[in-house]
Amino acid sequence: MMCWDILKKPQQQNHTEKYCPPFFGRQHHNTSVSQKMNVSFYRCVTQHRLIAAKRKIVEGQPLESIYSHLGFSDYFTFYHAFKGEYGISPRQFRKI
Asked: According to the model, what pLDDT value does residue 26 have?
């Protein structure tokens, strides 16, 4: 089970707060994810966003639009999250 499954796939938005259904707060989700998957809610959301980024890269979408569409504040933040998770840059991933 992926950590995102715990959150019941709420409607996707750009900000972490909007990933939470209105009847549960961020702390509830952070606790649920932390207890069940041993990762923080923030890490879970970041992983989900990076998986979506990989899909968009494969689909051929421009890198410049991917990071902002997925809620990363800038390309630098997206680049370092992507490279930290997968060991290659988004541009290198596009070439493989």
From this structure: 57
User: CA 10 to CA 94: how far, in whole Å?
Assistant: 28
Helices marked H in the chain — which ranges? 3-6, 26-37, 41-58, 63-69, 75-86, 90-95
- 């990989």: which residue's tokens? 54
What pLDDT, on a 0 to 100 scale, did the predictor assign at position 43? 84
pTM greater than 0.70 (yes/no): no
Sign of CA dihedral 39, 37, 63, 70: negative
Handedness of CA 41, 47, 53, 59 (dihedral sign): negative
Which residues of the chain fall short of a pLDDT of 70? Answer: 1-37
